[in-house]
Design brief:
Helix content: 40-55%
Shape: globular
Largest sheet: 7 strands, mixed
Distance between the termini: 21 Å
Radius of gyration: 18 Å
Number of helices: 9
Oligomer: single chain
Number of strands: 7
Strand order of the largest sheet: 1-7-6-2-5-3-4
């Protein structure tokens, strides 16, 4: 419970105390947008790493060399925990925006930081607005900003993390239209940090593996048609392989 309280204090404290920083970042952005983007990225990454340190999570990272550092990508990952964002965003080498649910846009200060980081808000109930969000993500990638999306559409609450939800194929249109590689991310045992012990935080063993880039144009016609299932299978195989690394 102590870790949970500390995390809450750090998160709330950062959001409140960062109000002047948001203003400074806004001013910087008026004169040097790229400098503002990078500084906002590094500030948030530092805070995410600090929060993960408080949780006591022991994180093993595999395949990080598969992530290009000179070109934007579409990150695709499985989703079990609120901490998936912290685990993955803290390692992004270049500007990266996450696609989040529309409800998060209403959270003051947090949504300000998310916009600074090029995050997009997806209305899962409105198909037309959802398409606009996907097209906005395509524009982000074309401008040099990576995008991350969890195509299960929501946190997977199944008891077994290998029992993944279906991947929404529409998420992959970002890579197809932006002509960027897909980086599959397999996040193992992240729910053991918090969700499995709600409301306490547990120092879990977590594995984040980045698979080799997937280039949609290089896939067979059948795999390209079902690219969501194709990517899901790759992530599932990584989860199976890494399961022993999360056991005590």
């Amino acid at each position: 419970m102590i870790r949970f309280i500390l995390v809450c204090i750090v998160v709330i404290g950062f959001l409140i105390l960062s109000i002047p920083i948001l203003l400074v970042e806004w001013i910087i952005g008026k004169f040097a947008p790229m400098a503002k983007d990078i500084s906002s990225l590094r500030i948030v990454q530092f805070m995410f790493r600090f929060i993960l340190w408080i949780t006591g999570a022991k994180v093993t990272v595999i395949g990080e060399e598969n992530v290009p550092k000179d070109t934007p990508v579409l990150y695709i990952g499985n989703h079990r925990s609120y901490f998936d964002i912290l685990l993955t965003y803290s390692r992004c080498p270049i500007r990266t925006g996450y696609i989040a649910k529309k409800e998060m846009e209403k959270i003051p200060l947090l949504s300000n930081w998310m916009r600074y980081l090029h995050c997009l808000f997806l209305d899962r109930k409105d198909i037309k607005q959802g398409l606009k969000t996907i097209l906005a993500a395509v524009d982000k990638v074309k401008s040099g900003i990576s995008i991350c999306i969890f195509p299960e559409g929501t946190r997977n609450k199944n008891e077994d993390e290998l029992d993944m939800l279906s991947f929404h194929e529409g998420s992959f249109k970002i890579a197809a239209k932006a002509k960027c590689p897909i980086i599959p991310m397999a996040i193992s045992n992240s729910a053991d940090i918090f969700e499995a012990h709600f409301p306490t935080i547990h120092p879990a063993k977590v594995v984040v593996e980045y698979g080799k880039p997937i280039y949609p144009d290089e896939l067979s016609k059948e795999d390209k048609k079902h690219i969501g299932e194709y990517t899901r299978n790759i992530i599932h195989d990584m989860l199976v392989k890494n399961k022993p690394l999360t056991e005590k």
